[in-house]
Design goal:
Rossmann fold; 5-stranded parallel sheet; elongated; membrane; alpha/beta; two-stranded antiparallel sheet
Length: 197
């Protein structure tokens, strides 16, 4: 019985250490990522309220707009399909937002078939190849960047990263960080499993 308890405590300790390590990776990557001049900016989708970008999506889009205006890239790929409760795709909502802010519509490329981050990146990579774009800046919330970077690497995307922290919604951001830790662990686990089998 005592041995069993020791094993349980040992297991809990290992899990706690892993959680701390992955949490550090999520936070550090999000805070330390810096954009580099690239062929395009890829903005990952997020919720749309009807036809209006949610605050998270608006902040991501504003970040992409800032990078575009500062000359980091000449094109923006807006990536995201149409989800439940959305009147238009996330990509279309972002394009309308950017054009309203003065961006030439020809500079905004829509990818509106994706429902997941992996699909965002796969479909954006296909657009990059067709356009002969070699490099990209991937934009999302800071807590999302580490996992997005692993997926981008798996797809062979040569990318730098730029993240946002939506300060008026700190509680939502904190929840995002908390959820991202098990999501990252799951991603690593699936990669290990796929290599084994």
């Amino acid at each position: 019985m005592i041995r069993f308890r020791k094993l349980v405590l040992y297991g809990i300790g290992i899990i706690a250490v892993l959680v701390i390590i992955f949490a550090f990776q999520v936070v550090y990557f999000g805070e330390s990522s810096k954009p580099q001049k690239s062929d395009c900016i890829v903005i990952l989708g997020c919720k749309v309220y009807g036809s209006t970008p949610s605050p998270f999506l608006a902040w991501r889009t504003d970040e992409g707009l800032k990078l575009f205006k500062e000359g980091y890239a000449n094109y923006i790929i807006v990536s995201g399909g149409k989800g439940e409760g959305e009147n238009i795709s996330e990509a279309e909502a972002m394009k309308r937002y950017l054009v309203h802010k003065g961006v030439d519509a020809s500079k905004v490329i829509i990818e509106d078939k994706s429902a997941t981050t992996m699909a965002n990146l796969i479909n954006s990579k296909n657009i990059m190849e067709k356009r002969q774009f070699k490099t990209a800046i991937i934009v999302s919330n800071k807590y999302h960047l580490k996992r997005a970077s692993l997926m981008a690497k798996d797809q062979g995307i040569n990318a730098s990263y730029s993240g946002v922290f939506v300060t008026p919604y700190k509680s939502n951001e904190i929840i995002g960080y908390i959820r991202e830790v098990p999501a990252l662990i799951k991603y690593y686990g699936l990669k290990v499993y796929s290599k084994m089998f």
